Fold this sequence. Notes:
- By secondary structure, the protein is α+β, with helices and mostly antiparallel strands.
- It has a single domain (12-160), classed as Heat Shock Protein 90.
- Helices cover 38% and strands 23% of the residues.
- The chain has a 5-stranded antiparallel sheet with strand order 1-2-3-5-4.
- The model is unreliable at 1-16 and 18-22 (pLDDT under 50).
Amino acid sequence: MAGLEGNEQPRGHSRAAAARWSPAVADEQVLDLFGDPTEAEVPLPSRPESAASARRIAQAVVLDRWRLSARLTEDAVLLVSELVGNAVRHTGARVFGLRMRRRPGWIRVEVRDPSRGLPCLMPVQETDVSGRGLFLVDKLSDRWGVDLLPRGKTTWFEMRVADR
């Protein structure tokens, strides 16, 4: 997943997609608009509204393309949102990348950013209004981690799936 630097702008495809995206865009069109994260990393601008785009992309892949259960889709989409939110809030990047992979028995979601700052799993209290992202990733995924890269990191989670 090379190619995105901390001060780099998203490629024209993503910038145009972000400008044209609306809730009225059909789920099957979202991959045409942004790119398919199962084929290549999808660059998204580091803005709060990218969480909604990433959720739509994840849903289109997990539910519509991979045809996984609604429960698994709901959890995966929530965790995508949490990783994207962390990338937007904590990395200072202008752009980050979303990648999704499937292999027998597993799905893997990766969010790559140019920061080498590691995310921290913090204890969470019921009254906390923030800081729950990695807590949710830890509780709902089967495993998660961070891979340091020469320029940045990839934060990922994996979930077991039943293959048909």
